[in-house]
Amino acid sequence: MSGPPVSIRGHFPHKEIEHYSSLHPKARHLQFSYGTAGFRTLGVVLDSVLFRVGVLAALRSKKLDGKTVGVMITASHNPEEDNGVKLVDPRGEMLEAAWEAHATNLANASNEDFSDVLYDFVRDSRIDMSKPSRVVYARDTRPTGESLVKALEDGLKAIGAEGRDAGITTTPVLHYLVRAINTKGTKEEYGEDSEDGYFQKMSEAFRKLVSGRPRIPPLVIDCANGVGAPIAKKLAEYLGETLPFVLYNTDTTTPGGLNNNCGADYVKTQQKPPPSLNGVLQKGQRACSLDGDADRLMYYFIDERNYFLMLDGDKIATLVAAFIVDLVRLAGLAEQVKVGVVQTAYANGASTKYLADKLPVRCTPTGVKHLHHAAEQFNIGVYFEANGHGTVLFSPSTLEKLEKHEPSTPAQSTALRHLNNLTQLVNQTVGDALSDMLLVEVVLAHKAYSAIEWNSLYTDLPNRLVKVHVPNRNAFKTEDAERRLVSPRGLQKKIDDLCKRYDGGRSFVRPSGTEDVVRVYAEAVLRSQADELAFRVAGMVYDEAGGDPHRRPKEYY
Ligand code: 16G
Ligand code: MG
């Protein structure tokens, strides 16, 4: 005998879903994919996606027993006409990987099928529709953001979820809010669940960490004409004279300005300062750039010879990790608290060498979620991508140890206090340009380092990144944290043979997760050799992938 027909628990709001869904139809020809950074494409085509993401976020919350789920509307460092959306799980971390596929499925269902596809999803995922549902959302300054928020809100209404609009703010603030809301009143309380709470927590920790140190000279900040601008302005008020800011690229209203010739991604990929800072920077003065949603950070300065020197994610990771290792040792906790660093294959070989002499270093595939999870395996895990995204994670047992440890000397007690303040300064939910910036400033103040001294900790190997347009980037498959190709077969061997001919030569090839290209990275002891190696490997990739010989880019040897 067959059992009762499989049905879902609680009420499935067919009517509401059909009504709201009809207001946000999906264009037939469009296909969407929830990738490394959520959905991301031209802002004007995302209406149906935002509606459906609203529905999905509401269901995710029900699935997690009514915990608050976050939604961030941004396309980060992409051009202004792009937009995107990603979901944030209750502890402020990225959406669980299994749900990325659900997001893609729902976004691509036809208008006629949407309600049925959704019903099946709710049934198969055993979502109890009678549970409460809460979603907090925010957006960056992109012009398409406002209408996309409306579409998202319709998705929440369709399910009857409780929505909280966090307004225009940075990605890291949204992640902070999610964790703060969900830990409120528990012993893991993360902070007050408001933007003010975020600033209070960070600025108080910063003041404590730099108190008694010499006055910090002004820091130039390039806000990428994005949401980092209003947020940095507010932060400046909380910090007052403790850390004076000079803000540039703060225009969030002139069309086309966002990330245009400015921002962390521009600086990293162009290896030069934003033109708007030409003539502004004094020799040796510290400057930094945020990206369009303020979760990436690049420092840089102009040296005595007028050369531009970049202090990227690797330089930040080494500075911060070495500082934390010292504090742990000084606090008398070296035996109990293990510090480790997580990087990707893009980390400059010189940074890996510098770090590996001091502490364990892991390599993961590109993408925040991979680094974040690997960093969780350490008592204190420092993770950074070379592109400037990263943070420090203190495990729950480490937090407890730091709180309970009885120091036996005044020096131990000071180091312990600093560590405890660091746990408050760092945004542990996700990479946060502003929190990372304060962290860097703390280390520089403690070490009495200028940008020049920081930069001299190790010398970057010259490196080159090349994009190769190929007919099918999915033909490229990697292993060993993207450091080796398994397909096309035989290509890795050729790359290995070529690398051997260059002093300090290292190169790897991987398909991009965000663009329809294959990326080639190469480094070597000499600039000319790094360039040559990169272009030779790129040429091999192009040929192997069956690129049209007539269109073979000239600079590929
Ligand atoms: C996304 C990732 C970033 C990664 C980049 C690589 C997140 C939130 N962001 O922006 O971590 O470095 O993609 O892009 O995970 P690629 O695959 O095109 O090289
Ligand atoms: Mg970003």
TrEMBL record:
Residues of the active site: 76 (phosphoserine intermediate)
Pathway per the UniProt entry: Nucleotide-sugar biosynthesis; UDP-N-acetyl-alpha-D-glucosamine biosynthesis; N-acetyl-alpha-D-glucosamine 1-phosphate from alpha-D-glucosamine 6-phosphate (route I): step 2/2
Family: Belongs to the phosphohexose mutase family.
Function per UniProt: Catalyzes the conversion of GlcNAc-6-P into GlcNAc-1-P during the synthesis of uridine diphosphate/UDP-GlcNAc, which is a biosynthetic precursor of chitin and also supplies the amino sugars for N-linked oligosaccharides of glycoproteins.
Residues reported to bind Mg(2+): 76, 291, 293, 295
Cofactor(s) required for function per UniProt: Mg(2+)
GO MF, any single term: magnesium ion binding
Highest taxon listed in the record's lineage: Eukaryota
A Pfam match: PGM_PMM_I
Biological process (GO), any one: carbohydrate metabolic process
Official protein name in the record: Phosphoacetylglucosamine mutase
Cofactor note: Binds 1 Mg(2+) ion per subunit.
Binding-site residues, substrate: 385-387, 510-514, 519
Enzyme Commission no: 5.4.2.3
Catalyzed chemical reaction(s): N-acetyl-alpha-D-glucosamine 1-phosphate = N-acetyl-D-glucosamine 6-phosphate
Keywords, comma-separated and alphabetical: Carbohydrate metabolism, Cell wall biogenesis/degradation, Isomerase, Magnesium, Metal-binding, Phosphoprotein
